[in-house]
Amino acid sequence: MALRTLSALPGFSDSAFADRFNRIDRLFSQLTGDSPVASLPAYDLKKVDANNYLLNVSVPGWKEDELEIETVGGNLNISGKRAENESQDEQGWIYKGIRRSDFRLSFSLPEHARVSNAKLESGLLQLSIYQDIPESEKPRKIAIENANNVIEHHA
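== Molecular chaperone IbpA ==
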């Protein structure tokens, strides 16, 4: 979650206030042990149809072997850990604006949901999530019996 405000002076607000917010966020993160909001990758979640969802996580510059996806106890965990050899590549950069810090995202999966596919393409990690609700657990209408006739409710 990034803090964005509309301003008549966008250059001033971005440099003065956004930097202060990031510093405060890092300070609280050090105190609580949580990951700073700014260091977590952005994501989109889309409902494709009644049973399918698409989760896109922005991970520019990450490789497949640096990312891990796992489901544990109804939670979907996505984490990224930098390769050790990247520390040698730190020399010569004038500015590095693409965040490459380790991260961990967690999502609660709905019951009967599973990740059916994952692919990394153009800096986006795309996960297809399928939710298959058994017929026995789907909502159903119950007819109300009357002495003379049966009243049915139609969905």
